[in-house]
Amino acid sequence: MVVMPELPEVQALADDLGGRLVGRVIERVDVTFFPALKTYDPPLTELAGRTITGVSRHGKFLDIATDAGLHLVMHLARAGWVRWRDAAPAVRTRPGSGPIAARMVLDDGSGFDVTEAGTKKSVAISVVHRPSDVPGIARLGPDPLDPGFTEQVFAAILAAQGRAQIKGVLRSQAVIAGIGNAYSDEILHAARMSPFKPADMPPDDVHLLYEAMQSTLRAALARDEGVPASQLKAEKKSNLQVHGRTGEACPVCGDTVRQVTYADSNFQYCPTCQTGGKPLADRVLSRLLK
Question: Where are the alpha helices (DSSP H) in 172-202?
């Protein structure tokens, strides 16, 4: 199972890197997989000699800010990650070879590599004056853990989505930032709600879903606190209740976790907990079997 970084992991990664990077000086940033670099002005070389002032998160984007007013923004996509190095690399990676997409080297030789597993490469790296210069950040919806993201705000968002299926609404970064395939499965399981339920739902259901969202994401954040970046993906995988657990027993009721597969993704759910015991048809535009 590919463990995609979502809000809790990216926040924990930002916290971990912040403790390592803030106050440090960048020697250079190399991009070894050239399609990963999405900007050309300012040039990547402008980061050399800059002091890192902060590391933060925008949805699933990682933002490394410098004293020059420049930001190195990264989206780790489905299979990307950041691997810390305490020492300088032995040799510079040959462009286009191996899993390394980019490499930051600090003035003492330490730093990190941005890696991506698999053959489909989607990691995106930008150098910008403002995070909002990255189109994906400019389009982000509100962050579900922001203090202003109240149940009333959530209710209005759902009402605006009408008959759209709630699974897709939770995953849409333009609607709510930071939740991906795994945590949308986990939130819906915690709320005991079908992935195909319409977004415009009664107030009692909005309340259940809001509480499930908050508790699921905050519990993941609490588990991730202080966990080294190298262990975050394993921590996430080990605590998932239904996502990625097709064929296993639901930890709540004991029913078998089922899966629905689409062209390029899939999701998991528990029939007893979420769909009244009825399995969902495993095809695009699935409906509850009658």
Answer: 181-190
Residue length of the chain: 290
Whether residue 185 sits in one domain with residue 100:
no
Supply φ then ψ for residue 148, to 5 degrees.
Answer: -80, -5
Tens digits of residue pLDDT in 132-174: 999 999 999 999 999 999 999 999 999 999 999 999 999 999 9
Query: Quick one: tokens of 105?
Result: 């080297």
Per the CB < 8 A criterion, the answer to whether 168 and 184 are in contact is no
Asked whether 102 and 152 are in contact (CB, 8 A), the reply is: no
Cα 284 to Cα 69, 235, 241, 264, distances in angstroms:
45, 31, 24, 11
Q: Is the pLDDT of residue 289 over 50?
A: no
User: What is the pLDDT, as a whole number, of residue 257?
Assistant: 97
Residue 200 has pLDDT above 60, yes or no: yes
112 and 213 in a single domain? The answer is: no
Task: Return d(Cα 80, Cα 104) in angstroms, integer.
Answer: 15
Which residues, other chains included, contact 166 with Cβ-Cβ below 8 Å and sequence gap of 6+? 158, 188, 193, 194, 195, 196, 197, 198, 199, 201, 209
Do 215 and 237 contact (CB within 8 A), yes or no?
A: no
Q: Which of 108, 138, 168 is the last residue of a domain?
A: 138
Give the residue numbers spanning the domain of 257: 151-274
- Block residue for tokens 């605006």: 160
Residue 284 lies in a domain: no
Q: What is the pLDDT of residue 15?
A: 95
| Span between the terminal Cα atoms of the chain, in Å | 31
Query: How much is the pTM?
Result: 0.92
Average pLDDT of the chain, as a whole number: 92
* Amino acid (one-letter) located at 149: F
